[in-house]
Write a structure and sequence with these properties.
52% strand; 3 helices; single chain
Amino acid sequence: MKKSLFIVFFSFICSYLAAQDLHYSQYYAAPISLNPANAGLITGKFRVGLNSKSQWSSVTKPYQNISAFFDMQYLKRKYHKDAFGIGAVLDADIAGDSKFSTISTGVALSYIKSFSRHNNNYISVGIMPAIVQRSINYSQLYYDDQFNGTQYDPNIDPNEQYSKRNFVYFDLSAGIHWFYRYSKKTSYNVGFTSAHITRPQISFMDNKDIKLNVKNTLYAGAAFSASTDLDVTPSFLLSFQGPYTEALMGALLKYNRTQQYRNYTSVNMGLYMRWADAFIVVAGFDYNNIIFGVSYDVNLSKLVPASKDRGGFELSVNYIFNRNKYVKKKEIPCPIF
C-alpha cells in the first residue's frame, strides 16, 4: 500500500516538474533552448548540439530528457553590420512510471546587430514558435482503490475517468542577448528570455484554468584569461516561473593544451551550485570544433533521505563547423564577419 502511494505521488511530482521546465545544469551548452536570440550567434558557418540528462534514478524510475539543436546565420549584411540567424530545437522529456512525455519542436529566428566598427559589440533579439505534444500512459499508474485489504491488486478497476491521453498546443518564446568581445580571450554576455508567452492550456482533464506559467530567465557570463594557459568562464542564471525560482551559479576553468587555430585543445573543469537543490561537478574538453561536457548533480535538497545525495547525470556535445578558420594574430574573432 505504502509503495503504491509513493509511486503515485512521485509520478505526479515528476509530471509537475516536467511541466515547470527544469533547466539543464549545463544550460550554456543548450544555447537555443536557453534563448532564441542565440540562434546564429557563432563564429563559424553552423552549429549542432546534443544534450541528455537523467535524474532521480536512485529514487524511482528516472526523469529523462534529450534535446538536439541546429543553428546558423542565413544572411549577413556587411554594409549594415548585421545578420539574421535561424535555428531548430527538438526536445523530449519522459517522466515517471506513467511515461508522462513532452515533445517540443521549435524554430528560432534572430536578428543580430553590431554596434561598433570593430564588430565586437552586439545585440541580438530572437523569437521561437513551437509545437508541443504531451502524452501519458494511465495504465502504469497505481491507485488506492486497487488495494484489496491485503495487498495491491492490478486487476481491480480503479474507476478513474480521463478526458484524453495526449494533446498538442502552440508555444512561443522570445529573448534578447548582449555580447561584447573585448579581446580574443575576454568577452561578456547578458541575456533575458521569456518562455510560454502564450500561456498554453496543459490540462489532461480539459480544465481551461490550468495553464503553463510564463518562465522569465536572466543570465550572464564572462570569459577571461587567468594566465597564458588558463581561461575562466564564470556565469549565473536566475529563472522565475509562477511561485518557483531557480538560481544557478558557478565557473568553468579551461586549461589550454594548445592554442593553435587548427588544433585547439583544452581540458575543462568546473563547479556550480543550484541554490537549495544541488552541487554540480562539471568536466569536459574542447578539441578543434568539438565541445564535450559531462556533469553530475549532487542532491542537497529535502529529497536527500530518498535520493541519498544522488541527483542527475548529464552529457552535452556541440560541434561548430569552420570555427577554427585562420584569422590574423591581432584580429578579434567576430561572430558575424
